[in-house]
Amino acid sequence: MRLRPFYRLLSLIAFNATLAGSAPAELLFHGDFETGDLSQWGYLLNEEGLSVVASPVVDGTHAGKVEITKDNLWSNGLNRVEVQYKPPAASLADGAEVFYGYSFNVPVALSADNHQILYWETSETYQQVMHVAIEGEKIYFATQKPTFTRRWEAEAAATPGKWHRLAMRVKWSADAAKGEVDLWFDGEKVVDAAKAQTYLGNPAFVQHGILRQPTIDEAETMFMDDARCGTKLADVLDATGGADGDPSAGGGASGGANTSGSAGAAPVGGTGGGDQANGGAITAGSGATGGGPTSGGEGSTTGGANGGAPAGAAAVPNASRSDSGCRFGRSRESSPGALAAFAALLGYGLRRRSHRRG
Q: Nearest Cα to 303, choosing from 315, 320, 321, 319?
């Protein structure tokens, strides 16, 4: 009985499996805290408020914990506890696009003050490009250029005790007619190709955790897990875990409410002197008015909090804080090829044995 065709088929399968196993992974970064520490992140802001916990988690066995108090102040006076990641330069250039997502869990509802939980900001000039924020249980997304615009908001969507998933696509462009942003919340697309100036002359980095304004006395907590950066939506959209909304079981990515807000709302002007929560800049004024980026000095607050525009004026973000000395990390996943290699060797041995007997 001659089995050479079978051996040839086995060898072909093994060869194809080897090629598939050696293909580069699409995922550019995976911040899942599975190292048991904070080493996956390139830069930490107020590290004393950051830790790694075993529960709740959305995937794996670890998650990050943010604990913020009134004492967690940055050099420019902002109340913040955050992690930072800077994608590869090719993903941040004018005309390029990148996908990013992560899961968060607020065990107790945050106060009605403004809490920015994710934002993109430029290197060196420190201008904010866009952000996601929570006020109580309301969540919203806004872009900053050419004018501050709330693109989406949803009441009672940041439900406490549940894992929620944010994912976005950013097409970088200095031209507001070509720059685009998509946003998904708990698997639902809530912002579709919103036009904005997304490239502000310098590559951006992403930070998430809690940045709250104003500084309040209350201590607050948030968990975060499964941060991913990739070149396609499938890299960042979904997170695995236990039953939806059950932090002890892992919490599915789709565990939260999908209440849709008013996408594409009109720009919000500088209410109350252009404070950050209502259209002002994320941080204190530019280096020209309050110390250069490397000095960490607080800028002018003329016309409103954090250097915002005067009351009723269109809000435009300012160059801001000092994040000098940032160290950026990058990790890349790859697929193991041990099984494919074994199959290839097995196929080769069987062919040689058949040849000798033939």
A: 315
- Residues 8 and 61 placed together within one structural domain of the fold: no
Statement to judge: residues 268 and 324 lie in one domain: yes
Longest dimension (CA), the chain: 91
pLDDT at 288 over 80: no
Q: Is 96 left (phi over 0), alpha (psi -120 to 50) or beta?
A: beta
Per-residue pLDDT for 353 more than 60?
Answer: no
229 and 353 assigned to the same domain: no
CA distance 32 to 102: 9
Q: How many domains does the chain have?
A: 2
CA–CA gap between residue 194 and residue 151 (Å, rounded): 7
**What is the domain extent for residue 60?**
25-333
Q: Both 4 and 52 in a single domain?
A: no
SS3 258: coil
For 68-80, what is the mean pLDDT?
95
Same domain for 3 and 81: no
C-alpha distances in Å from residue 9, one per residue of 19, 40, 159, 184, 353: 16, 42, 54, 44, 16
First-to-last C-alpha distance (Å) of the chain:
10
CATH of the domain at 161: 2.60.120.200
**Lowest-pLDDT range, 5-14, 134-143, 197-206?**
5-14
Strand partners, 101: 167, 228
Same domain, 253 and 342: no
More confident residue, 179 or 281: 179
| Residue 316: per-residue pLDDT | 32
- Backbone phi and psi for residue 103, each to the nearest 5 degrees, phi listed first: -110, 145
On whether both 8 and 84 belong to a single domain, the answer is no
